[in-house]
Amino acid sequence: MIKSIKKILVPIDYSEPAFQAAWIGYSIARTMHASMTLIHIHIQEKALRELVLIDKDELAAFSECHFKDLIEKLVGDPSYKGLQSAADHSVVEFDECTYKPSDEICHYARDKEINLIVMGSRIHSTFEDLILGSVSSEVLHNAPCPVTVVH
Questions:
Q1: Looking at residue 22, which CATH number applies to its domain?
Q2: Smallest Cα–Cα separation from 98: which of 60, 46, 150?
Q3: Domain contains 126
């Protein structure tokens, strides 16, 4: 049985793969009439989970050009202030979280009953993955729902 997609989660950071993942997530959300949440784990003095929640009806009203501009702003500055100024039309939330982004992404997906995670991945060498680990790899293995990884 195919489960319908109603909620999509897209982790974002300062990378081109994050921009591509957001664009693909947007396309899927519009096609499936789903809502979309953009999540950024901000780590400085304390770890914060920052979210932009875009309702399915609001997402359907976005033009592709408007969404592209929004994502360029958010990927360029996914800090709380950046999210707040770029996404004045959506709900922006923030909360303290752990210092491990993959855990936060999986916990959020589980708590909010997310149906699909779409995320970007930088290409690392095997050595880098062994030493650093890969957020996308950890999410892929621990997520409570399907994950689409975009390079």
A1: 3.40.50.620
A2: 46
A3: yes
pLDDT digits (tens, 9 = 90+) for 14-68: 788 888 999 999 999 999 999 999 888 877 666 778 788 888 888 888 888 888 8
The DSSP output letter for 113 is: T
- Name which of 102, 82, 84 is nearest 92 in CA terms: 84
pTM for the structure as a whole: 0.81
The CA distance from 105 to 40, in Å, is 9
Count of alpha carbons within 13 angstroms of residue 120, beta-carbon side: 19
Residue 39, domain extent: 7-150
Tell me if 1 is assigned to some domain.
Answer: no
Task: Report yes or no on 73 lying in a domain.
Answer: yes
